[in-house]
## 1
Amino acid sequence: MYVIITYDITDDKRLNKVRKILRKYLYWTQLSTFEGEISEGKLSKCMAEVNNVIEIKEDSVYVYKVENPKNLEKNVLGIEKGHIDNFL
Amino acid sequence: MYVIITYDITDDKRLNKVRKILRKYLYWTQLSTFEGEISEGKLSKCMAEVNNVIEIKEDSVYVYKVENPKNLEKNVLGIEKGHIDNFL
């Protein structure tokens, strides 16, 4: 399964915690975007950890799931940040 | 076709221009995320407009395309911003 995770986290402390969790499971490809292949089990674990950190009345996390990666096409305008670890 | 567009635009003027373009075609659902159903033709038109605005050596725009929306599942943690026009 391929997933894209985007987020608006209103507090910097929570934001860093969420990113730290997501980096264990996926690739950080834009400041507010993680993506990559992941199993259903690992995704559930990841989301449970994120859910423990965010403030559900203030923060927003979207998880877009595509079962078969062949059904997803990605186009890039400008730079592809790939693994953002190399840039920050 | 369903698309999700995410972006990192390093200059506020360009950022506002990109958002203004995207709002003509899609729903603004997080600060750096637009999504919605769109035809191939309209998407090409939209991307041509965005391409005219961004600085390709600095900015990053990802266009995730799923031909059949049934192949995409979206889960939300926290708040679903829906149409961000109502929030800003």
## 2
Amino acid sequence: MGISVDTFFLNPQAQGTLQAQIQQMIAEGILSGRFHVGEKLPSSRKLAAHLGVSRITVTLAYTELLANDYLTSRGRSGYYVSDNAPVPPRYTPLRRGAETVDWDRAIARRFTLGDWLDKPADWRDHRYPFIYGQTDPTLFDHANWRRCAVRALGQKDFASLTADYLDRDDPLLIEFIARHTLPRRGIHARPEEILITLGAQNALWLTSRVLLDRSRKAAIEDPCYYALRELLVQSRCRLAPVPVDGDGLPPEAVPGDTDVIFTTPSHQSPTTATMPRARRQALLDRAEEIDAMIVEDDYEFELSFLGAPSPALKSIDRDGRVIYVGSFSKSLFPGLRLGYLVGSEPFIREARALRSMVLRHPPGHIQRTAAYFLSLGHYDAQIRRMSATLLQRRQALEAAIAAHGLTIAGRGVYGGSSLWMRAPEGVDTADLARRLQDRGVLIERGAPFFAGPERPGNFYRLGYSSIPTERIAPGIEHIARAIDESA
Amino acid sequence: MGISVDTFFLNPQAQGTLQAQIQQMIAEGILSGRFHVGEKLPSSRKLAAHLGVSRITVTLAYTELLANDYLTSRGRSGYYVSDNAPVPPRYTPLRRGAETVDWDRAIARRFTLGDWLDKPADWRDHRYPFIYGQTDPTLFDHANWRRCAVRALGQKDFASLTADYLDRDDPLLIEFIARHTLPRRGIHARPEEILITLGAQNALWLTSRVLLDRSRKAAIEDPCYYALRELLVQSRCRLAPVPVDGDGLPPEAVPGDTDVIFTTPSHQSPTTATMPRARRQALLDRAEEIDAMIVEDDYEFELSFLGAPSPALKSIDRDGRVIYVGSFSKSLFPGLRLGYLVGSEPFIREARALRSMVLRHPPGHIQRTAAYFLSLGHYDAQIRRMSATLLQRRQALEAAIAAHGLTIAGRGVYGGSSLWMRAPEGVDTADLARRLQDRGVLIERGAPFFAGPERPGNFYRLGYSSIPTERIAPGIEHIARAIDESA
């Protein structure tokens, strides 16, 4: 590919001769790495016509660059970036005027203040990745996913690939969710009660913006998924963290002036506690009593390899009080960005309008690919395969933990993909995680899950969805040793 | 695919015998369309074990349904949904308790109040679709897009397909934008100054949320892209609509207390006016004088088939004052949902954090597919092909308009994909559009582009990116006749 003539502009305010300006543009292109060794320059005739200068000016500039070894000429075929041209440093900051904008003033709202878990980008290169929520290539059915994606790229699906989806989502995907996915959770919903979202995070965000404002109060579990707390803090609603116990969120502890209750009954995040049926009913009763809405994040319900999952809270909701959040990201892959909301029509209508304003809609191709993957049964097969492997890993993990005398603070009775752990008092797991990372062991510190200001520092999470079974025992040995060193 | 046992739950609060409940679950499944003719029921043994009831209870329920012709039995192979089972109405509302939630109270903020252009979902079935921003299948290089998508589904790209992209975007796509796309607009940017967004809409939304709050003022063009005005209204900032003229936004008319100026210098939306270079510089000077930021939406710059495009406003920005919004949706397809923001690092950092909170990141597969399509040169080839066709259509359109004496209110001097039209005073183009739709002609009414409350009702937009050249003249004839009938 030659260098396009369109990349050249003369700056009317620039200093120096036209020839010098042209030379400088080309040299800067090479130095900044935009033009690569061996790339062909536009002909002097073309560049001269494009810039509106005489051809001799361009030729003189090229000749000068030839002498400086920026360019090389290949007889009549033209000028090329020379093999000997200065090698660009990878993305050197380009010469520009010093920016005069006062960003502290220009930025009206900051979003970078939150406490996030940092996952090293090279986590796959670590020997013992007890990380959470990532895809294990050995468990993901990449071949069938690709087949479904290719099918969704076919002529027949042209409209679903290319069109706008403003007023509706992919009807195939919606139908599958309504007829197959939700009934397994005991939920009956019409298409108008379902909205496809860009993952569960997007579903939670949309819900918070429709149901909350500064005057309203949200109750959250403590500890809870840190990104949920962060987005509620940003919404500037009032926030009531409610400490969870071994059965999840205690209904009687939800403040009476709460407007929206966020809960994870299937596997409490991060403690993995499962809320018993009686408490689910009690939570619904409490919500009715104080006239609060409930947002149920039903993540990971599919990974119930230790026992049948309870029906969703939404399945015993007679009032339309429960907004249900589902996701395919955990069981497929996080980069998919596909989740859904189930709720009453007036709510879904507002959430859809907000979604339109913020991002229009999740890309059609992804919706259609997922619809094929689900309806052809690949999804169920993958869940079965994942469950069998996760069961093995879970057993290896619990055995290794017992052998080394580590303490489990929470374990999902139905399954899941992580354990919630407690190190001895005084152990700072942020420091522990740093030390372990040097030895190839990745764990997640627990502090970001807690509401401030007094956060316990000695919890951590062990994910087992990405670590091979045989690495679990030696990995746990590293952790036990590192904890001993802390004491 | 048989009916999964997981879709069955007994409701602990249900009335009636266990047998009756099981019968009812199955009948409801058939009546609601969840269970299809010919699908196999779980064996009585399996279902009994799952529900924790005796096997004879399930068998009795099945026998009863057999008698009612809901089910049929095929000897020893089990029970199936009968061919004669009642055919479900498509998604009958399911029997549920009346919802008691007061949605007027529960919804904190409404997003459904805006004025949107309604595009009929079946627009492809209309003979004369003068609609805007949709993909013409004869112009889109579907075959190479599919090839790139398949390549991006390969084993080598597994990580980019499946992984989280929180702190960065696809490096291939970013590199292409930095080295090839932006230099064509005269813009030099480092990777840290670029953020991939879910289309231009998402880019504008993120920008508005970072730069504006209730205390700040945004200046917008009047008329302007209605979805931009809508998202600013929702942000609750103060809004100053500034009437545009034939050269776009007049800098001297921007109020002195403006914090952010939203502008479309390349093709003003919707009038298609192109801002001359001198005015661009004057706009930058005005922004510096009043210390305002500028958001430049550079949509459609590629479709400059009538003349070379001017460099972007961002290219003459020395201060870092301009935030640049680019998009691939117009030139590829709107369902792609891929755009980008270019701005100074402090701004991009906040926009990225906000994007993470709202939707995490645009799906990796789409980013990688676009990177391949761009870097293999298919994108440029497509733009050339589109431009040649759009030029033909534009000429046919201008000729037909002249022949019928219709009035063009704005035409992009460089190209574009639409004309901005004015009907005689007193013609209501909303009504005109309705009448034309019955004759297979789709035009866009102009009122939603204007800031209220006194909106002119006689403007309309004619897109020519989806209508075949030979349909243009007869389509314009219909429009001229319908306007005559209004008079």
## 3
Amino acid sequence: MPIYQAPTKDMNFVLHDLLKISEADIPGYDELDSDTTQAILEEAAKLCENVLAPLNKVGDEEGCHLENGVVRTPAGFKDAFDQVREGGWTSLDCDPEYGGQGLPYLIATAVGEMFSSANMAFNMYQGLTHGAYNAIHAHASDELKAKYLPKMVTCEWGGTMNLTEPHCGTDLGLIRTKAVPQDDGTYKITGNKIWISAGEHDMCENIIHLVLAKLPDAPEGVKGISLFIVPKFMVNDDGSLGERNAATCGGLEKKMGIHGNATCVMNYDGATGYLVGEPHKGMRAMFTMMNEARLGVGLQGYAQGAVAYQNALAFAKDRVQGRDVTGVKNPDGPADPIIVHPDVRRNLMDQKSFIEGARAFTFWGAQMLDRAHRNNDKDADGLVSLLTPVIKGFLTDKGFETTVLAQQTLGGSGFTQEWGLEQFVRDARITMIYEGTNGIQSLDLVGRKLGQDGGKHVMAFFDMVKSFCKEQGDVEGMAEFVEPLKAASKDLQAAGMYFMQHGMKNPNNALSGSYDFMHLFGHVCLGMMWAKMARASLDALAADASDKEFYETKLATGRYYMARQLPMTATHLARIQTGADTVMALDAASF
Amino acid sequence: MPIYQAPTKDMNFVLHDLLKISEADIPGYDELDSDTTQAILEEAAKLCENVLAPLNKVGDEEGCHLENGVVRTPAGFKDAFDQVREGGWTSLDCDPEYGGQGLPYLIATAVGEMFSSANMAFNMYQGLTHGAYNAIHAHASDELKAKYLPKMVTCEWGGTMNLTEPHCGTDLGLIRTKAVPQDDGTYKITGNKIWISAGEHDMCENIIHLVLAKLPDAPEGVKGISLFIVPKFMVNDDGSLGERNAATCGGLEKKMGIHGNATCVMNYDGATGYLVGEPHKGMRAMFTMMNEARLGVGLQGYAQGAVAYQNALAFAKDRVQGRDVTGVKNPDGPADPIIVHPDVRRNLMDQKSFIEGARAFTFWGAQMLDRAHRNNDKDADGLVSLLTPVIKGFLTDKGFETTVLAQQTLGGSGFTQEWGLEQFVRDARITMIYEGTNGIQSLDLVGRKLGQDGGKHVMAFFDMVKSFCKEQGDVEGMAEFVEPLKAASKDLQAAGMYFMQHGMKNPNNALSGSYDFMHLFGHVCLGMMWAKMARASLDALAADASDKEFYETKLATGRYYMARQLPMTATHLARIQTGADTVMALDAASF
């Protein structure tokens, strides 16, 4: 049975040493002293370690079952969901007006990492509800909000997002689901949606579907899509549940992973729906909450890596095999623990240095989102929009890769179901696909975000890196972090320059390099995070911190990232600079 | 249902345009004109496409079942195995003295790729038998050979390899299985083995287990291991089957993939065994056939990539979504096929350029093995020994990565079981682990093979690359292949130099870079293969080949590899040159 221990100590390091949140000038952050965050994280840790993590394998093995239109979740899920609800974990960052606790999104992010590591398939039920909550909160009328949000905040009612149809996923302009206006102001929704996570299940008394559909007079393409609330059960004016709506689950998808989450075919047969926001503006409504949703998927990616790493590490310390070539380390045993071997170290350090960098990057992004929303800071909003595809694409690619590395640490045991590593690999795999495939993320980055507001945000990013490097370059102990970061950042700028110079002539010169650019950008971001964490660690050591070993370990891990991961930027740049010629050379028929 | 089309055309290109096998001075090769190889490949293709590939999903979904000590294989496997036997596919490269066809190993390799692509789990039953055949053929007495080999050549009897025990896999010096000599010259074998592929099943009338065990007077460690034949059913002198031996399957492993293959716990309870070769020389016996076994696993790795790619390509041509930014390609449809998009191309070209390079490299390696065995060529033997860990480690890592890329091409469909891509990912994953994890391959490469015979073989490799570059550098059209190859080869030499200069002082400086070195080496090998394939294609075009498009596509694919894959060598070198410091900095307790 795999283990999970919530990394509360490292989270507190990120929150307080790195981000210094209680000093940040963001409404609500002043209450986040380290005692408060520690108390929250420890409570969440208990639930994750004792209740959710043990159900992860159960969910995988048992899966979900559709019986007479009802989806039965794996044994134990419903009880656990009740505990999550009772603990108030569903409402952390929700609006107090609707019963939420009004905590910063950053706190929900830290807790979210634990929930995702412990049981990603389970946590999706809550995650999807939160996504639907956000969309309704941002775009629906006060009346709809008052009717639906309070019970979604508590997760008494679940929520879903219905975008994909069999013939269209990425290209939503092609959707066929129809919404026909009725005399009473409601709409009749008819169509088929696929891959609807948590579309039907037995853990909530109602499910509020958000459905993209087209009005009869809708313009062609994405500019003709509207967003509707379609409840599973109609909600009476007094809040009680009424009739069953014509929104039903037509089947469950068999998938590689996240078996504990019900991936549904949803059929809408003239179901009653309510328009959210303006007609034809459904895509905009979706997009405004996409930053948070995509950040949440990036988090899932590295969170799977994080739990996989813990299990790989435990194995590497326990399993004895072979001897340290530089001298026996375990003379009383038949062999040395495999953690003595350099290639096992290389593997573990790749995992560790990525995960800790990813955590810092994600928390930093969550803080930017808080700044954007709570301070109404347009620059923070622009920066986090720019980096959202990097967080989603890079962290899920590398998060998946990390689960594969962790699996490899266990050798043959990693391939067996018994040890659980292979489940982390299978579960992590979806994060590279949903909420926009990583290829789409890279197009969003290069095709939209780079040039947004005249390139203002990418320039701000470079300025931020540059001023950090300038400020820190001569500080004792920082050169070994600042110099590689400078080099990597230079590669990123050169790649951007290549796109500017060659993308005008032929956009394919930019698009052919978009994926490499996303990874290049990701490495620079993690390099920056590691340099900042080094700075924070040096400060703590200079201030004679009680836990010297923690900070020295942090510095050593950062040095590894700089030495062994950051050199990837050169290869990404080299690939980008070859342009579209070799990528597009073949006719489709010649493949 | 996934598709599979055997790549006979590309195989013939490798055999005849690239390797020019019928002109090669290797006994048996003179008979391999293109009509002969075409006939063999086409027959194999029929079986693979029509019989084995359709059973791949069945095997995955149904798996193997242990009932009263007997393993039931998935429905259809036994019939298919009969067809494989009847077609003579099990005996291609076996010794005619024992009923084999005596064909070169190269031919068995080409056919093996198809079998592995079509149904890897199924083909392992035959593959393991062939491995056991090889060990017995190379090391057992004439009497044992006469008794066991003829029926193993036909696969009427299966074969297995029993190395791993619960407490030891990589470090076989720790094995506990005992062999006690009996008065009649036999041995009583007692112990538990795990992860025994094809250890028990219902497709053969007998199973011949090869078991590593220790004699009572055995020296400690790997120098005290002996190899035994332990038949499932005793074999009488007239060849008929006698009593059941005390070799039983105690359980089946639940695994991430290759469900169609039975991975058995094997219990030997005083089972009767026969010594193969000399006492205490069991590891040597294993090692002599390891080159072929590991080459076979490298082949499995890229073969899974190959079939996954075919399915990704078909999807990319068929699925319409979005429009080509440089101009609509499918004006009559609602959108363009996704193959028009540069990032989809990038993905497909990564797959295609790897697979074709890997095929060439593996076939070339098989030819080297034939040269080593059939010409008794020590240099060829040394070279293939050097490159075996590269073939195994690099091709399985990249093969797995290719299945993941192919899965990504399908977006959400790639994650569903229906489309079958996720099975290729799960099946390919084992190739990075078994037959020595890829970490172990990299240690074998850097710790043993580089310095073997005074570094003679690695020098021969560099000479081969160098003289090719010198000879071809000025030939028209070759510079774009030769120049990147030169640069990559220089990186490889620099890495080797780093090991020499820093590995003496501290072996961890070399071992910390072993994995990167294996990949660096792999890229140089594939770069060399692409340069050679470019040369062959230019020749064919100059000779006015009828199929111009094929050769031009080959050149374009090679250019892609040079531009987009080979730049990885710089990053691998940079990582290697940082040495052991950052890798080994942490105490085990500080992780």
